[in-house]
């Protein structure tokens, strides 16, 4: 896929003066965060908004018009590219509509809640020759990029094992967000697909997987129906392995990614933000985010909500913290740059055609099957069920 094929056709072809008119589908917590990041960029404008509940405020803020449906927004001649930030269950229809309208797409994570839906989305984007970037924003953390560089240049040796943990404790809530409902969000594993995606970026696609757990401590009207304890093993078929833990039934919150290679190891700590690299007898420390200020603010965020930590959720009334705004700036700058004709970076190739996001959901589907059927599952089983 070339940039020439994916860049929208706007009046000017000069990157200095070209304007990309974005359509925003979903103007809640994160749709607004993305839109505010995009409009900081030269040549970016939010032209049309669709949101069944929150369109008016967003349209006023961005000077945009309102579309009555995602389909109408995608078809609009005033839209060059589409940002999808609706609830997880609703992404599929908007992405397919945008692709069929020939518009490049930035879609929030998880791109969909099944491998089958992901495949339809990836195929629609490929057929239209448009970019389909997933909002897997963890890939834009400075610490994660550092770890990837150390793996790529051989400093860590062969990576044998990764451990990702994203756990906390959820208190009763007066009203239950869609994010806590399995059918709407996918639950912890799908909603927090970031860690699984990064582990697979590092280790390759998992081959055989297991998951145990369930809803062990959060039943009743003040909670959703998602599983609050998920314990995962991934086998990659070449004597390399990963384990992941997710959930909201953990009174001792943790959030980290540990990478163990034959020559060295990297601990990416997202709770006490920072990155520690051990190679040979030497240990170095690095920032997780772009600045010490962003790392310090992340530490404060977590300290201030020690009970729920990394399983805390925004809603349309909240504004993201500085560190999150920072990585959103990085990913929106990258996407917008591609539309203006910037050269793609090989590191992000599978992130901008939907295939990395689909690979993460394939593994999540296999894990879900493992949990419900109490057995080890080959990820190929999920893939073959859609593509026999
Ligand atoms: N990358 C990240 O770190 C990150 C962080 C937060 C949220 N997200 C993702 O962003 C997306 C939105 O989450 P959020 O936190 O903004 O949720 P939210 O509940 O704050 O906002 C969702 C918005 O979508 C609107 N909406 C509902 N149904 C819709 C539909 N069919 N079409 C269009 N809009 C619809 C709602 O009215 C609401 O304004 C989700 O996919 C979520 O996973 C990503």
- Specify the biggest β-sheet: 9 strands, mixed
The CATH architecture of the largest domain comes to 2-Layer Sandwich
CATH superfamily of the largest domain: Dihydrodipicolinate Reductase, domain 2
**Mean of residue pLDDT values:** 94
Report on this structure.
The relative contact order is 0.16. It contains 14 helices and 15 strands. 37% of the residues lie in helices and 23% in strands. By secondary structure, the protein is of the alpha/beta class. Helix 2 crosses helix 12. The protein is globular and about 55 Å long. The strands form two sheets. Strands 14-13-12-11-7-10-9-8-15 form a nine-stranded mixed sheet. Strand 2, helix 3 and strand 3 form a beta-alpha-beta unit. The chain folds into two domains: 135 residues, 3-Layer(aba) Sandwich (Rossmann fold), CATH 3.40.50.720; 194 residues, 2-Layer Sandwich (Dihydrodipicolinate Reductase, domain 2), CATH 3.30.360.10. The structure holds nicotinamide-adenine-dinucleotide (NAD).
Summarize the structure.
It is built from 14 helices and 15 strands.
Main traits of this protein?
binds nicotinamide-adenine-dinucleotide, globular, 37% helix, 388 residues, alpha/beta, 14 helices, Rossmann fold, Dihydrodipicolinate Reductase, domain 2, nine-stranded mixed sheet, six-stranded parallel sheet
């Amino acid at each position: 896929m070339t940039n020439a094929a994916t860049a929208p056709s706007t009046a000017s072809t000069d990157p200095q003066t070209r304007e990309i008119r974005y359509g925003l589908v979903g103007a809640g917590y994160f749709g607004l965060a993305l839109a505010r990041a995009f409009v900081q960029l030269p040549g970016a404008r939010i032209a049309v908004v669709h949101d069944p509940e929150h369109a008016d405020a967003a349209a006023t803020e961005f000077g945009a018009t309102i579309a009555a449906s995602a389909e109408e927004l995608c078809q609009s001649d005033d839209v060059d590219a589409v940002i999808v930030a609706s609830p997880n269950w609703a992404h599929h229809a908007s992405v397919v509509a945008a692709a069929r309208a020939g518009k490049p797409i930035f879609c929030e994570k998880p791109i969909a809640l099944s491998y089958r839906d992901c495949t339809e989305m990836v195929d629609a984007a490929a057929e239209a020759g448009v970019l389909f970037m997933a909002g897997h924003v963890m890939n834009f953390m400075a610490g994660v990029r550092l770890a990837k560089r150390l793996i790529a240049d051989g400093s860590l040796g062969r990576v044998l094992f990764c451990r990702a943990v994203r756990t906390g404790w959820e208190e009763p809530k007066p009203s239950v967000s869609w994010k806590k409902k399995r059918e709407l969000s996918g639950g912890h594993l799908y909603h927090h697909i970031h860690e699984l995606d990064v582990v697979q970026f590092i280790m390759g696609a998992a081959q055989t997987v297991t998951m145990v757990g369930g809803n062990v401590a959060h039943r009743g009207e003040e909670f959703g129906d998602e599983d609050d304890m998920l314990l995962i093993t991934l086998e990659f078929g070449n004597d390399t392995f990963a384990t992941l833990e997710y959930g909201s039934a953990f009174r001792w919150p943790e959030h980290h990614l540990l990478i163990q290679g034959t020559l060295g190891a990297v601990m990416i700590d997202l709770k006490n933000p920072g990155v520690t690299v051990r190679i040979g007898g030497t240990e170095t420390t690095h920032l997780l985010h772009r600045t010490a200020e962003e790392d310090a603010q992340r530490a404060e965020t977590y300290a201030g909500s020690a009970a729920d930590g990394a399983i805390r959720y925004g809603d349309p009334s909240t504004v993201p913290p500085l560190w999150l705004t920072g990585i959103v700036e990085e990913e929106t700058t990258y996407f917008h740059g591609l539309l203006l004709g910037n050269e793609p970076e090989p590191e992000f190739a599978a992130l901008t055609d939907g295939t990395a996001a689909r690979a993460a959901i394939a593994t999540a589907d296999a894990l879900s099957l493992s949990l419900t059927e109490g057995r080890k599952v080959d990820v190929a089983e999920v893939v073959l069920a859609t593509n026999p």
